[in-house]
Amino acid sequence: MHCLMVFHALLKKLYCMEWSINESIKGLHDVISARDYNDLSEPIYDRLFQIGIILRLSIINDELEKLNKELDSSIILEGVSIDFDTYLNKHYWFDNFVFKDEDQFYSTFGVDLKKYNYLPTINKMMDYFPKRENEEQNNLNALDTVKQSFYHICERNLIDSDDMRYALFFGVTLMMKQLQEIKSKVNNPQPHQYIKVWNDILDDNKYIEVGQHYFEWKDENEDYRLIELKSQQLFTIFLLLDSGFFRFYTSVTGSEVRNRKLIIDDDVLPIGTKIPDSLPTECAKFEKFIEWKDEYIISINYEKLGKYIYKNYNKLSIDDIENVVLFDKTMDAIHEDMARLKPALSRYLKNYEENMVSELVNSCVTILATCNKHLAEGINESFLRTYIEKLLYDNEMKDEARTKLSNSSKKTFICNIVAVLRNMRIFKVGVDNKDLAHSLHEKINDVLESTLEKNIQRAYNANKGSLYDWTLKNIDAIKQQSSNPFAGII
Which of 319, 348, 377 is the last residue of a domain? Predict the structure, then answer.
């Protein structure tokens, strides 16, 4: 019975602590491979063991599904610490008594598993196990409950052997399918996800503030001019380049070094600063990551920076990450000081677009709030704000939505939003376009109520378009987010 003791200890660990997906999958294989069939002489123990594996597969697949969805919007800096090469190798799963041999495994993969009742069976098995939200209860009580659940299924023959066999194969098949999808997403991130990498780094390094050298310089130069701020900008860039941050970037040519626009020389550096021979090359590298704004501001392209960090994350040191965050925050401070001397530069500040969009969100939500009285049961008043924020910040729709909501088409587009939400049953079933138009007219009172109704009706009847398609795809997630009181907090 040694194997059962090991497995019970494993379950105790399973219910009382968290570990990475990588360890979970490796642990699953270890348990299967270490099983001593001779120790399980009674059929009930054999079935108990298989059900335990199915339980663990179910939990692993749940975690993989969460990770898979997360990777649609962001990427994980460590490249996801999953041993894809091992776990996607079918042979890795053969040398055990659960999956008898390779031929059986391949033949099962060729079977139309849909004709078997394996998925309801897995769900049915899960019904007998303690819910995962109860993990905080006493460890021994939790373990006893799991053991009782297992024996209950085995003793009463609630699951037949065919169900067990195909539930096992389905669990492994689904696990490998999800691993393949995750591997593809990790290896081929979308451009907007690299910005998320940079934002995550900033969030993790909130304690880093503007460089001390800039504070000291401002303290000594109270009446500074734009030309002097420009020199401080170049000195701040020099500090980052001199740290070797871009040492892993090699895609730069001799021509690019000779023809670079970025020149850092003795004229812009403090007296006594030693300029390394590699500086021209480092400047040419840096130009690959920047955008020139006006004649004064040099702005980082965060999509490209995030990609560089992601590809080299395991080679970059903690000092490298802290240096680039320090650089970014110092550059922000310099740019804000430039904008104070030349207000036209404010449009290039990092938070300029965010402030503009924030004002746009508030404006639209104020108008749409007049329709709160028509919301369907179960949809709270925070839903409309959540929807508008998602719409205006989503990579797929933000350009179209911001353009239309920022010009003369704003009122028509809001009517389209209302029509689409009515189509999605966000408003009560009994509400009609006249009711919605009447409510909108409280804020859009410079347009005839009949015109608002006509615009809503036209969009409602069309039942198509990019706004409709986007909402159809995102509506369920937005409803869940807006109903969660902790959304945005945890």
Answer: 348
- Cβ contacts of 207 within 8 Å, gap of 6 or more: none
Q: Report the pLDDT averaged over residues 369-379.
A: 92
- Are 182 and 198 part of one and the same domain? no
**Residue 205 token pair:** 């390094």
Residues 176 and 92 both lie in one domain: yes
Q: What is the pLDDT of residues 54-65, one digit of tens each?
A: 777 888 888 888
Give per-residue pLDDT as tens, 448-463: 999 999 999 999 998 8
Q: Among the three residues 348, 375, 404, which one is the final residue of a domain in this structure?
A: 348
The secondary structure of the chain in percent helix, strand, coil, rounded to multiples of 5, reads 70, 0, 30
Classify the phi-psi angles of 464: left when phi > 0, otherwise alpha if psi is within -120 to 50, otherwise beta: beta
Number of domains, the chain: 3
Pair 322, 209: CB distance under 8 Å: no
- 457 φ, ψ to 5°? -60, -40
Q: Domain containing 285: what range?
A: 194-348
- The two tokens of residue 448 are 């005839």
The residues near 176 (Cβ < 8 Å, ≥ 6 apart) are 87, 88, 90
| Stated pTM of the model | 0.60
Q: How confident is the model at residue 250 (pLDDT cuts 50, 70, 90)?
A: very high
- Do 16 and 119 belong together in one domain? yes
